[in-house]
Write a structure and sequence with these properties.
The chain is mainly α and 492 residues long. It has 4 domains: 31-85 and 99-126, no CATH class; 136-167; 190-262, Endolytic murein transglycosylase (Dna Ligase, domain 1, 2-Layer Sandwich); 267-448, no CATH class. The protein is 39% helix and 8% strand. It has 16 helices and 9 strands. It has helices at residues 13-17, 40-55, 136-167, 169-176, 203-212, 221-229, 248-255, 274-285, 289-295, 326-343, 351-364, 370-382, 390-397, 409-413, 436-443, 469-485; strands at residues 104-105, 111-112, 190-197, 238-244, 261-262, 265-267, 317-319, 452-457, 462-466. A hairpin with a 4-residue loop joins strand 8 and strand 9 (462-466).
Amino acid sequence: MSDPHDRRPDSLGDFFDNVPTAATPLPERDARDEPAPGSRRALREAAARDAAERDVPRARTSAGGDSAPHVTGDDAPAVPAQPEATVSPRPAGRGDGQGSADIAVTPSGAPIAHDEPDHQSLDSLFAPEAATHVPRKRRGRGCLIALVVLLVIGGVIAGAGVWVYNTYQTQIDDIMGWGEPKDYESGIATGEAFVTIKKGDTGAPVSTALFQAKVTKTDRVFYDYLIENDPNVTFYPGVYKLQQKMTASAALKALSNPDNRMANTVRIAEGSTVASSLPRIAEGVGIPIEDLQAAVQDPGAYGVSAENLEGWLFPAIYTFDPGSSAQDVIAAMVDRTRESLAKAGVPADDVQRVLTIASIIEREARTADFPKVSRVIANRVADGMMLQMDSTAQYGYGELHAGKASTSEAAQHDDNPWNTYVITGLPKTPIANAGDAAIDAAMHPVDGPWLYFVTVDFSTGETQFSETYEEHQQGIKKMRAWCSANTDYKGC
């Protein structure tokens, strides 16, 4: 066959005849057939070739022979059909940048498995060669673990925040300005309230007296107002007629007005004793304290069958005519006690027992809980248990008016006939003056199984009643937590 390159002009025939012929002629090359190395086209063709090689085992004709794999794309080169002989893979480390070996095919057409992974996607061709591939499952597991760790950390932080807020809620609310206002709004004052100011009283006890008479909203709001606005105010002893739900500012103006001071008037407080009541009578009525002390020495002079008049000076507001004697004053208070006993239906031979129970109730709880406390006393007496009431131990030791809710170690173990931590049953006599609600509760306890109670919030008087000792211990923990968070409260 003639060589097409020999078709040249005759004038140059001799020249070309003398040119040596190359042993292996170089193929002609079309610039469009060979893409530039590293170009997108080169990468696409490489990917197409690799895909075609992987599809070789699956590209079989219906007659069982192998057909050439078909690669789509404008620039995809045709791949010749492979014979049915085994095709050996290229060496693993070839420098073509494709990252996979050829697929080996057995004579029967089944592919030979290789350890090298297939390409994940075309995007992997553009990834840096040094990039580390993380399997999808491991990436998912790592994200899940990280999410769990974050949730655990967030839960711990949230739990700590809840504990801090619950423990120090009062202080946090004060700092942040949250919670209920400590003072009443102006213009809502109503009704009547009587406040007794004793000789020598300063801002703190007056503030407490106003709160107890329901004049102010909180125990310290009046005292705080004084510190900020009039720290040098002077208070004069006597009974003052005010209103309930007054602002601290309005209460101070009312106490500064002499017209609100009631002449020849005395207020005997619930839970007070003979010893604490006589000085108030002397200040309010103007009777010498020595005369009053002599007047209470003989209970029989007032028809009382008891060794003293403890519990018989009924808590109320009294106004006496000028010139009233000490005996007149004491007789009026004893008579008022009899009225309350009759109203509650107390038999004449049971008055001393009922007054004793009522005096403990008055000292131990807020009015709403009186019937429950009465039931606790009744249940413990019926079961033969010691009452173990702090108020009785404090009375017997002489620290009833020390301003503490808990009992000192010395008072709790002092051997006296009033200390129910030492004796079984009721104290020897009443320990305080009880009002109508306490006397009625002593006579009519509510039904219930309780054997224990403890005040868990002294600002509100909230009290927990328990049937078991274990439940009672939980209540004591709540009380101690409240006191720890309210260190400025002197009652703890």
